[in-house]
Amino acid sequence: MPETAPIAVAMSGGVDSSTVAALLVREGRAAVGFTMQLWNQRRLPQLTGDGVGRCCSLDDVYDARFVAERIGIPYYVVNFEDRFEEKVVKPFVEQYLAGRTPIPCTLCNNFVKFDQFVELADSLGARQIATGHYARVEQDPRTGRYRLLRGRDEAKDQTYFLFGLTQEQLSRTLFPIGHLTKPEVRKLAGDLDIPVAAKHDSQEICFVPNGDYAAFLDAYLAEQGIPRETTRGEIVTVDGRAIGEHQGVHRFTVGQRKGLGIAAPEPLYVIATEPAAQRVIVGPDRDLLRSRLRASGVNWVSWAGLSAPVRARVKIRNKHVPAWATLHPTGDPAAADVHFDEPQRAVTPGQAAVFYDGDAVAGGGWIG
Length: 368
Prior knowledge:
The chain is an alpha/beta fold and 368 residues long. It is built from eight helices and 17 strands. The chain has three domains: 7-132 and 176-211, 3-Layer(aba) Sandwich (Rossmann fold), CATH 3.40.50.620; 230-283, Adenine nucleotide alpha hydrolases-like domains (SH3 type barrels, Roll), CATH 2.30.30.280; 289-367, Elongation Factor Tu (Ef-tu), domain 3 (Beta Barrel).
């Protein structure tokens, strides 16, 4: 492939991906901008929300097109709505109804933003893709394996959501701002005269207005004509004592404190949910501590696999400070048993356990 082959840039309309596109142009690279249309914001109109702070909005598409015109690159909007619903929205609904807490952004990265985007790049004749993620990638000269590294800005690092990337995807991916901090990116955007340099970051999931997961689930199931069985059930203590009622286990997640509707002498938290029995189990904060977990569906990234116990730091949710643990093989190459040095709070089924070897993502899987 000649060096003049274009680079496909995923443009969300935000400052990060816009800066990536402008940087490539400044370097004399042939860039082509693409915005992925993932969700029809006009669906489920009964849900409240003004779209502010949500990714992939119509305003974002407008901003991405405007930036592409300003920097002088071809620009296209590609419709991935069907793929997104099949691989992200439906599993999101199924997981919540099963009493788990899914991570739709990781599913989107795994099955849409990288998987489909690489195929799109192939159709264009592009050898590489570029995104505005705060992460880095490098090739290990000893093994030839591609390593996914944390972004320099610890507060913005997005590797927790990228653990599912394959070696093929990493070999073709550029993260041009992974070595920068967010303030540095904003300053660079201003220097490059990018019109969205001061635009606020998106905070919410694109298909869940105002973060109200339960309202989305109810509206989506109604739209699909899927009848809901009775969801009312008991709220019980860890020793089985009933102390209240709830309107559905999908309204609760492990570690939750607010919204329980229970008066108690000490704060109570959701310890677990039992969808089959329609029970929500609550208890004091100390009952949230866990020393072990099993990760399944593990994708090994910087490491080729696990053949013996090994030390690593493990992150169990995006804002969690990675904790030291020993990883143990299970006999299944796509699983690992994690034994923490110190018990961790709110180990939540459906979330990811991502393993770090220094700044490198060794691998990651789903908490069972």
